[in-house]
Write a structure and sequence with these properties.
With about 210 residues, the chain is of the alpha/beta class. It has one domain: 3-Layer(aba) Sandwich (Leucine Aminopeptidase, subunit E, domain 1), CATH 3.40.220.10. About 35% of the residues lie in helices and about 15% in strands. It has a seven-stranded mixed sheet, sandwiched between helices.
C-alpha cells in the first residue's frame, strides 16, 4: 500500500527491514545503544559487529528517548543506520505521543542532513515497549506525512511492518490520512513539548 504526499511517497510493506534497498534504515534501539531483541537484534546481527563498535565509540553516553543517532550500516545494503529511541508505553500519561513524534522527526532530521532520498522505518515502540499499534500508527504517519509534504530531497519513506496486525493498523491510518490536510498534522517537538529532536552529535563520514 502507498500514498502520494505531493511528489513524495509513503509505502507500507510487510517484510525484513534488513533487506530493504534504501539509503537509510531506522533501528528501534534502546537508550544504551547496546543492541537487544526484536528489530534491534535483527539489524545488529545482519549489519555485523562494526555497528556496536561504532555506537560505543561515538556515543558512549547512549541516546535519550525521543532522539536518534547515525552510524554506518555495516554489511547492510543501506548507507546509514539511524538508531532511534522511542518511548516505553506507560498508559499515555507520560508524554509518549510527543516523544514518539520527536523520535520520528529526529530520524527525518538525519535523513535530511545526509541527503537521503529513501528511508525504511519499523513500527517504533510497538514491540517490547508495548505502544498501542493504532496510536503509534497515527503519530508515526502524521509526522512522516507532514515532513514529506515539505521535503524536496526525501522522496520515499517505507514502513516495514511485522505481521498482519501491524500492517492492518497502519493501513487504516494511512487511508484516513489520505482524506486529511497534512498541514494540520503535528511533527515532533509539538507545542508545549520540551523535546529537542535536533541531532547533537556529528554525523559519521561516508
Amino acid at each position: 500500500m502507498f500514498r502520494q504526499v505531493g511528489r513524495n511517497r509513503i509505502e507500507l510493506v510487510q517484510g525484513d527491514i534488513t533487506r530493504q534497498q534504501v539509503d537509510a534504515i531506522v533501528n528501534a534501539a534502546n537508550s544504551a545503544l547496546a543492541g537487544g531483541g526484536g528489530v534491534d537484534g535483527a539489524i545488529h546481527q545482519a549489519a555485523g559487529p562494526s555497528i556496536l563498535e561504532e555506537t560505543r565509540r561515538r556515543y558512549p553516553e547512549g541516546c535519550p528517548t525521543g532522539s536518534a543517532v547515525a552510524t554506518r550500516a555495516g554489511r547492510l545494503s543501506a548507507k546509514y543506520l539511524f538508531h532511534a529511541v522511542g518511548p516505553i508505553w506507560r498508559g499515555g500519561t507520560s508524554g509518549e505521543d510527543e516523544l514518539l513524534r520527536s523520535t520520528i522527526s529526529a530520524c527525518l532530521d538525519l535523513a535530511e542532513a545526509y541527503s537521503c532520498e529513501s528511508v525504511a522505518f519499523p513500527a517504533i515502540s510497538t514491540g517490547a515497549y508495548r505502544y498501542p499499534l493504532d496510536l503509534a500508527a497515527q503519530a508515526t504517519l502524521e509526522t512522516i506525512s507532514a515532513r514529506l509534504a515539505a521535503s524536496e530531497n526525501l522522496k520515499l519513506v517505507r514502513m516495514v511492518l511485522f505481521g498482519e496486525g501491524a500492517y492492518g493498523q497502519f493501513s487504516r491510518v494511512l487511508e484516513s490520512l489520505a482524506l486529511t490536510d497534512v498541514s494540520n498534522f503535528r511533527e515532533g517537538g509539538a507545542v508545549g513539548s520540551d523535546v529537542d529532536s535536533t541531532p547533537k552529535r556529528p554525523l559519521p563520514s561516508e
